[in-house]
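Homework-ish question, so no full write-ups if that breaks the rules, but can someone show me the predicted structure for this set?
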Amino acid sequence: MAIVYIPPQIQKLTGAAQVEVSGSNVREIIEQLEQRFPGIAARLCDNGQLSPALQLSVDQVMTRMLSTKVESATEVHFLPVIGGG
Amino acid sequence: MKTHVSTTINGEAVEFLCQPRQSLLEILRDELSLTGCKEGCNNGNCGACTVILNGLPVDSCLVLAVEVEGANIETVEGVAQQRQLHPVQQCFLEGAALQCGICTPGFIMTSKALLEKHPAPDEEEIRFSLAGNLCRCTGYDKIVHAVQAAAESAPAPK
Amino acid sequence: MSTEFMTEHSTEYKVIGTRPVRHDGSDKVTGKAVYTDDLHLPNMAFGAFVRSPHAHAKIVSIDTSQAEDMPGVLATCTSADLPDPWDKVDDLGEGCVNYAHLSGNVLARGKALYKGHAVAAVVATDSHLAEEAASRIRVEYEPLPATTWVLDAMKEDAPLLHDDLITHTLDDAPAKPSNIESHIRFEKGNIEEGFAAADVIVEREFKTATVHQGYIEPHVSVASWNEDGRLKIWTATQGSFVVRQQMAALLKMPISQITIVPCEIGGGFGGKISVYEQPVAAVLSRKCGRPVKIIMRRDEVFEATGPTPGSFMRVKIGATKEGKLTAGEAWLAFDAGAFPGGVIGPGCMCVFSCYDLPNAAVDGFDVVLNKPKTQAYRAPGSTHVAFAAESVIDELAVQLDIDPIEFRLKNAAVEGTRRVDGPVYPRVGLVECLEAVKNSEHWKSTLSGPNRGRGVACGFWFNAGLKSSVTASVNPDGTVTLVEGSTDIGGTRTSIAMQLAETLGISAEDVIPQVADTDSVGFTDVTGGSRTTFATGLAAHEAALDIQRQMMERAAQIWECDTGDVEVREGVYRGNDESLTFSELALKADSVGEAIIGRGAVDPQVSTNAFAVHLVDVEVDPETGKVTILRYTASQDAGTAIHPSYVEGQIQGGSVQGIGWALNEEYFYDDDGHVRNASFLDYRMPTCYDVPMIETIIVEVPNPDHPYGVRGVGEVSIVPPPPAIASAIQRATGIRLTDLPMSPPKLWRAINNGE
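A: Not a homework solution, just the prediction itself:
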């Protein structure tokens, strides 16, 4: 089970700051979240992709790809995108 | 209406026609293809266009081309002699005194002019003399060190 | 030069850590290097912009007829000449862009949103004529109320820039449009409990002014839209592929029809990623059938490109009397400029990033207002928040009477520390940077004399990975030609070549690096995010391994043995009782088979996590309020310093940019929303007379995600200077300034009000 850190602004949907979810990649994780907490996918995604304002931190990997693999005890964070100078 | 100007650039006699409103920078770059001097601000604040005019470093964007009749001009293209880099150029290279390089020709010219007048300047004199040249990359540390190294390596050729 | 090293890597390198002369150096000290403005194509014409004189105005009409009637004027263009933009958000690697906004920033649609906003453009046979023609384009405006201060723009009754802007938030979306583009919130632990456990709490409000990246080369491009439909653009950019991506979207054409040629670039610092003049030069070229050059004047650069946000911040931190931090709270509002997409995200992520903070909450707001669209500037967002958080940390240290370095060491982020935004740090080097400063001769020296003070501060920046590509061909003389997609802003040709050389066991001088156009190398993200030496270096390492594999096969073929029997060490290939050096084998390989070409394409999706700690001594002139930097030391974790001179250069350059931001640089806005100091004379960047030598301490805590341990070094050095200087001023005068820049008038007023 991956550990999903729920952004504070949508914790009212989950009632918890962290949720354990099964799934082999982030896309499946979000599908699982949506089943349990209807409406959450629309906050995180846009047209089937991660929302343009967000990036993922999957353990040490920083990515925007929903196909990113997750394993047991993987931490998934939803973070703002970063631009570099 | 264009004006005819005769001048000396890097030791060679050069003639050109210019409009009264054209700067020396514009003529050097656009008419004479001496693109080593750079346009950073076009109003005399950054020093990227520095050339040596009758022995003095000047911002070529602030000199009108018609003013250089009979003058002796040195640009960065004339600093290396017989395929040999000038000590200032050599010390900038070895001391990593450049990053993006856009300000470098201006710094080379100002430093060369300084060392020709004051072969052994102290840090204060170097910093004061180079204060008209802006560099946004290096924080100036390595530039000042390069000029110090150039002063130590060889007396600047007259 | 007194560079100290604090090195943890045990490997002995032959090339890495040496200081070869950079490959492009000779061209750059002799004036031969070709920057975009040095190009002069046959039959080239020159473009100029018409820009809004108002900070906010409806564009009623644009009449180009008078300009078009002038002899020598070839064409004009307005936003009507750009395709209707896609309302599409695209990932540029280093952040996302909405093309409707980008198109509207390139040429205003319907409204001008800031003074200097491009409204129209004209092309003529010479540049003076183009400027004259621009002055004859008649634009009728209906001025609107404008706002240039972030807190004003957030008010309910503020003039709206975009009628359809609904705050982007993970929370319930508000019903009404506003200027608040986004609201981010992070929480960790329980701040009520955290503050309840504190013995001392400090809360302060901070302001920072809008500042510009200040690269010396103005934005400049040459575009040639040919009759066969192909578009070629020579330009000064941090990322040629990202320019191609933006051009294709803005002009609605296939990327395969566009070639971007990156010329030498005269500085970027985050400001040369977005396109500005490139699409306009392209459209003008299409209309007039000639190559078109546009170079911005310096006032245009200030008024219409960059800058980085002004901000308002409130930060509150609590600590026990033993010096352990218990809780932190931050409320941050940043300018986005006229269009959404600022740097509030990283600002929120960085505000408490240096510390192990058990309880925290961060709110961040990105706000549109009537200023130029902001862009990244070296560790974007982190300098702002470090000024606030590190100033509060320092004040806590003073109140608790704990040495400021010891206070930071007690709370410093280490491997395993969970950041307030969630992720956990891998191995990082903040403690090592703090120890390096603590052990420095500078810290141990005594600072005496009136009006003098010493300050210290930390800084953090993520550093990016992202995509990089190279190819490398072995030449018969044993050299390797390295073709890369990363534009070289500060010596990266050499830092990348050195990694290829190290891997192959050849010298840096035996690598011939060149930066290629978008048709000649694989996709490569921008030179930004401190990523180039890390990620393009990684690609070069991969290409070197590819070459090595082929060389071993070739050696086996020559020696008539199995490839498995060939071994290579330090560039010498051995097998079947024979040995050949790299260059000997290169010559033989060339005569017995096809060319040896290595490829490297990488997309490391990691942050490499850079920390820096700076130490500064200042003297304040109470008569004038002027601050003189007496001595400056900067330590930074480079992971592994590939070319120490250029690592020092990045540290020194960033430090001095940070000093400028701290003491002098700001956009002065008048009541009409006009910038009043859009020149290098009045926008006061540091000259070499303003700063001392910058002493550097390179800390090397190798990055586990890179074969040579590289972390990237470009950005974090700009972060600590403002708070370090603020704390030094506090020690010198007893006054804590909370408003950047800490310019002479502000400090003088503070001294004379007896604050």
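Now go work out the reasoning yourself. Hint: Chain C touches chain A through 53 residues (CB under 8 Å).
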